[in-house]
Amino acid sequence: ARGESLYFATGSAKISKTEQTRLAVFCHHIKADSHVNKIVIEGYASTLGDKERNKTLSLNRSKATKEYLLGCGIEEEKIELVDYGSEFADKVEINRDVDRKVRIRIYRSR
């Protein structure tokens, strides 16, 4: 599976303009590839805040990304959401920015 990561501001599930631009290009490539049969959107959060809130935040990030992909014409049947919360977050404060993300994994049929 190949993929792409999108990054979010602290405590936010809003896709920034910069990330929207990256996502638009990504979406274009997905639509152009007839072999894409599954898209898994994995939501993550940093360790700031409580575990339950981070789980919800990671799910909201995944949902926002899914809505964007649906809006650009990706079929809903292909999309699966996974929310990890802060389960795999780096405990080092300096690395928190990279934990506030969704990772989009693309699976292709042969």
Q: Mind describing the biggest β-sheet? A: 4 strands, mixed
Tertiary shape: globular
Strand order of the largest sheet: 1-4-2-3
Write down the overall mean pLDDT. 85
Proportion in helices: 25-40%
Strand percentage lies at: 15-25%
Structural class: alpha+beta
Order of helices and strands: EHEHEHE
Unreliable runs, pLDDT <50, ≥5 residues? Answer: none
Distance between the termini: 12 Å
Count of extended strands: 4
Question: What is Rg?
Answer: 14 Å
Number of contiguous helices: 3
How would you sum up this structure, described in words?
By secondary structure, the protein is of the alpha+beta class. It is 37% helix and 25% strand. It has helices at 17-32, 51-71, 96-99, and strands at residues 2-7, 36-43, 79-83, 101-108. A four-stranded mixed β-sheet has the order 1-4-2-3. The protein is globular. The two termini are 12 Å apart. The model has no long low-confidence stretch (mean pLDDT 85).
